[in-house]
């Protein structure tokens, strides 16, 4: 249940606010002075605080400057009279979440409270995610700050809590093996073996013996009994990379392991039971392979209990700068040199499409470090295809209209941007104003000018 604190020297207004929002299900605290507000914030767990700009013993801005750094997990809203707009702007710069003009309408306050609650919840979610990302960085697993990778990390977290089979899909070099290790490290099996098998690296006969082991004399050259990878991964995790490359006969045997957690080694008539978590990965479209008869449908659905798609790097460009920094840190530690990249070079690397994804980026950074003449990398240190790549600039959707003057066309563009901002913020004017980096009053003036309701 959300707790509110209203700070205002009008006791009648405080009674009205307390009564109204208590009926709405909120826990409401009130204070009529700055000193009382300090006491209430120490003792009451209020998440959202409404501050009047003019109090008997302090100003709202003074309290805001005091409270914001002290209570970073709370949100502060300024209540101001119409004549105090300039002060309200100052308060926003001092860290206020929003402001509302007095006399305030209850429905307007409710909208602000709802948005503030959503913001606090999102902030808590981001804090949790940052802790996860920090943990990943410590483990040197994988970095991702884009919305797409945050979704991947949430799926990884959920998958790690279970023993369900996981199928990782994505282009080569996107980091599927790192995601697999991450799932293992976050799971209850983290202290048990993690065994990785590249199914594309071995011919069928060798792959079968590698996975399931064999008895002495099972085939020419089998001079002694040998355990396979499934037994090596007992109580832990086995990672089957490039699962789409295995043959149909071997798929049938693998299906039994996935379903029954049991198999027979080559040359043996004894069934071996294993407790193992299976993670598979592929850069191929298994669904299409099923339709073409190249991959068993029953095995596909048994592997695809939890499906995690890792997007290519070109679709999450905001991840490129932190990845570059991670790879540079690795090289700094290796060579004991403070390697750097100028901002314009980072911008150029962000624009490159990276067909080889994260693996190509890591290799390119390592190559540049080896070839650079000093401690600052240049574009000449990177591979030829990167040096010669042309910036990928999206075509402009702004077309010249010869029937309109320049001011008329600029107004059309401005109106479209305002409509887009309002759509993105669900019609919330204050949020749209922040998105456009203009004041709320200026946005309302523009909306009235363009007849936007």
From TrEMBL:
PROSITE patterns: RESPONSE_REGULATORY (PS50110), SIGMA54_INTERACT_1 (PS00675), SIGMA54_INTERACT_3 (PS00688), SIGMA54_INTERACT_4 (PS50045). Gene3D superfamilies: 1.10.8.60, 3.40.50.2300, Homeodomain-like, P-loop containing nucleotide triphosphate hydrolases. One of its GO terms (biological process) is regulation of DNA-templated transcription. InterPro entries: AAA+_ATPase (IPR003593), AAA_lid_NorR (IPR058031), CbxX/CfxQ (IPR000641), CheY-like_superfamily (IPR011006), Homeodomain-like_sf (IPR009057), HTH_Fis (IPR002197), P-loop_NTPase (IPR027417), Sig_transdc_resp-reg_receiver (IPR001789). The modification 4-aspartylphosphate is found at residue 52. GO terms for molecular function: ATP binding; sequence-specific DNA binding. Pfam families: AAA_lid_14, HTH_8, Response_reg, Sigma54_activat. Keywords: ATP-binding, Nucleotide-binding, Phosphoprotein, Transcription, Transcription regulation. It comes from the Bacteria. Residues 142-370 form the Sigma-54 factor interaction domain. Residues 3-117 form the Response regulatory domain. This is Two-component system NtrC family response regulator/two-component system response regulator HydG/two-component system response regulator AtoC. The lineage of its organism: Bacteria, Bacillati, Bacillota, Bacilli, Bacillales.
